[in-house]
């Protein structure tokens, strides 16, 4: 029973922890990685499970991105590696959940016990802890693979942007505001 509770808690908590890293301060489930100043540079938007690449405000298809990266080998390699890892992550996670379920469900068994000159049949369930551990490991590895694939796609856009312009085009534009806040207090807002 304790193994069932631990497995269910891990399945419910792991996605929350992974997706909590992707939220902005305004609790949105999407964030923009960079705000380039050059109109030829790429902008990346991360959502819950996907990474979208935009150019001039238009979402690019994977074919367009591959042709765009054809001259930049490092960006192309990172993008293709990320595209390979993204579908494998959920597949591995789903396999881990199934394996964990099979381990928790167990295999019914029975044994004949001779006690006080009576034959008693005891029914019980055999549960495999190594199978459960392997299922949890596969589930976590699948989430890591999915996130790694998304990070490789973000890295590919950074590599592309660094080739087309100076380093300023891929960094955040610093801003500094001084004034009265919404609550009526005096405040300073700085972003680097």
Describe the protein's architecture and organization.
This protein has helices at 2-20, 62-68, 73-105, 129-164; strands spanning 31-32, 42-46, 51-55, 58-59, 107-115, 118-126, 175-180, 186-191. By secondary structure, it is of the alpha+beta class. The protein has one domain (2-191). Strands 1-2-3-4 form a four-stranded antiparallel β-sheet, with helices on one face. Helix 1 runs parallel beside helix 4 and helix 3 runs antiparallel to helix 4 (129-164). The protein is elongated.
Question: What tags apply to this protein structure?
Answer:
8 strands, four-stranded antiparallel beta sheet, elongated, alpha+beta, 4 helices, single chain, two-stranded antiparallel sheet, 192 residues
Specify the structural class. alpha+beta
| Mean of pLDDT | 79
Strand order within the widest beta sheet: 1-2-3-4
Uncertain runs are: 19-31, 166-170
Q: Domain count, please report it.
A: 1
Globally, the shape reads: elongated
Major sheet size, sense and barrel closure:
4 strands, antiparallel
Q: What's the order of the H and E elements?
A: HEEEEHHEEHEE
Radius of gyration: 25 Å
Number of DSSP E strands: 8
Q: Could you estimate the helical fraction of the residues in percent? A: 40-55%
In brief:
The chain has helices at residues 2-20, 62-68, 73-105, 129-164; strands at residues 31-32, 42-46, 51-55, 58-59, 107-115, 118-126, 175-180, 186-191. With 192 residues, the chain is α+β, with helices and mostly antiparallel strands.
Topology:
Blueprint: H1 2-20, E1 31-32, E2 42-46, E3 51-55, E4 58-59, H2 62-68, H3 73-105, E5 107-115, E6 118-126, H4 129-164, E7 175-180, E8 186-191
Antiparallel strand pairs: 1-2, 2-3, 3-4, 5-6, 7-8
